[in-house]
Prior knowledge:
Elements: E1 2-3, H1 6-33, H2 43-61, E2 66-69, H3 80-96, H4 108-115, E3 127-130, H5 131-134, E4 152-157, E5 163-166, E6 176-179, H6 186-200, E7 204-209, H7 215-220, E8 224-227, H8 252-267, H9 275-288, H10 290-294, H11 304-312, H12 317-330, E9 349-353, H13 358-383, E10 387-391, H14 395-399, H15 401-413, E11 419-425, H16 428-433, H17 437-442, E12 446-449, H18 454-464, H19 468-471, E13 481-486, E14 489-494, H20 502-507
Parallel strand pairs: 6-11, 6-12, 7-9, 7-10, 8-9, 10-11
Antiparallel strand pairs: 1-2, 2-3, 4-5, 4-14, 12-13, 13-14
Amino acid sequence: VQAIDQSDAIKTVKRKITDLDVMKIQEQKRAVRSGYDMDILPSDLATYGQDAKELLKTLQSRNERMFQLTFLVLNTADTRQKLENDVFWAAGIAQKYNCSLVRLDYQQEQGLMSSLPLGASHIQIERSLTTSSVAVFVPFVTQELFQGGDAMYYGINAKTGNMIMLDRKRARCPNGLKLGTPGSGKSMSCKSEILSVFLCTPDDVYICDPEAEYYPLVKRLHGQVVKLSPTSKNYVNPLDINLNYSEDENPLALKSDFVLSFCELVMGGKNGLEAIEKTVIDRAVQVIYRPYLADPKPENMPILADLHKALLDQHIPEADRVAQALDLYVSGSLNVFNHRTNIDIQNRIVAFDIKELGKQLKKIGMLIVQDQIWGRVTQNRSKGKATWYFCDEFHLLLREEQTAAFSCEIWKRFRKWGGIPTGATQNVKDLLSSPEIENILENSDFICLLNQASGDRKILAERLNISPQQLRYVDNSEPGEGLLIYENVILPFKNPIPKNTQLYQIMTTRLGEGATV
């Protein structure tokens, strides 16, 4: 590429325009002598004249410069026949885009020397191009994501084939979302990241698993699976608290907020709790935690039955109403959460299996799991350890106002406490219809978009400022392929996992492909 002096370039174009005008006049004279209409001109002459004037305008007013470009394609092969095939193939590709490649007959040596990185051109075949046209040939136009230190592997760049290495902890806000249609590879992406966290960092990993699909991976990593169901003997107490639970000196403030959300979900009212009901619940919370705060022993930890009794003891109609709603979960058939925690969840990787909780208990179960994870995050903060939280079927939490508000609180506050939450869901419309999604999207600097349905693509393109060209990577893409959004960078990626590996058999959810554990 050789730059031409701007004034010389403008003079050259003006000279060409003058030559074209002369040719135009000659054609008009010829037409008049032959008895034709003088406005009938050869199409090439009209086109060239228009192009030349547009080029002059570009050089004079659009800050463009003129360059002389020599474009060489070097073909090498082991045999003459293969070389001729390669040349024919390359010429065919060029022809497809209305360009022609000319073989350098009797100039092969000069062509080879010009192709070597010596910075010298021995071929006197040049083409004039403007700045924006020459920029097409500059190869360094794709973005890359490759961080050092504790960065983890997230696949390969679909454009360049280079590895994508990220450390989400370095992001302004490390919270993340993984969105895609069924079968697009969301769970595989989560499991792959869980494995990287487990192997590359000392961090803890918590998983909320509504479909019981993380069991094989967690077992293989010698983690702990907590199975919550009406018939399970694994119990988690929703009223568990630790003294680091809140930033302020009184840990009851945040716990009381959780209990209010829990009771609101139990009562199922569309308008939420009334002011008096909130007051009686808060009063009961203060009463039931008094023995534990005075003497923090495990046997002093309150359970739902204590909350039920504290409400009845107030002898107020509003308190009785809340107590009656809680009765199903205290002495009724759904009393799975009316027990003290009987499991030690101090393992590095813990999965809460809530598949068998049923429709009535699943949302409550997810809320309780989040509260347990919040407690673990506060413990780990004092140790200087990060806590990763993966929530599958994330849209379930955003359907109910109470669980959505609690999730939003996690997305806002986890970063300060060393927590890194990630939500995965296939129901993008359900997710985007939640009033809390704006806060969650604004507080997520890591978004993994896999294959998307046509309706979801348009909505996501507007929300996340994705161009039509980038959107092609989530249109009928293969499993494990899509777009990775990290802060202000949007990259197309592929993350293929070979099917003949133990890792794939442990992580896959496809029927008939999984391994028995």
